[in-house]
Amino acid sequence: MNRKLTLPMLLAGALAMGGIMSVAHAEEPAAVAGAAAEAKVIITADKSFRMFFEPAELTVPVGTTVTFSNEDGSNHKVNFSDGTQSDRLRHGAVYTRTFTAPGEYPYACAIHPKMTGKIIVR
Ligand SMILES: [Cu+2]
Predict the structure, then answer these.
(1) C-alpha R_g of the chain
(2) CATH homologous superfamily for 38-121?
(3) Which partner from 34, 58, 65, 91 sits 20 to 30 angstroms from 99, CA to CA?
């Protein structure tokens, strides 16, 4: 991602009428090209208090930032098999991880090992 204004871009903006808008316009293609993908996994439970990740399996493009949002009343902790872990997430807490390499990233809740999921990065 390159969202920094370069000197030529600043000069171009300053020389054009309505300089600020021109700078914003000049920056637009880079911002779109570098737009980071985002996805969300909700931590929740059903009426039988069975807790789970939703969706349990999620496929995303490389560079995606996945937000795990604990919407359940219990604490949970996202524990990836590659060793990356969230903090203990209380109700309402979120954890984000950005996936920069393709692969499969299985995980489980460190507190409730039956809660499992997988992020597939392509
Ligand atoms: Cu849990």
Answers:
(1) 20
(2) Cupredoxins -  blue copper proteins (2.60.40.420)
(3) 91
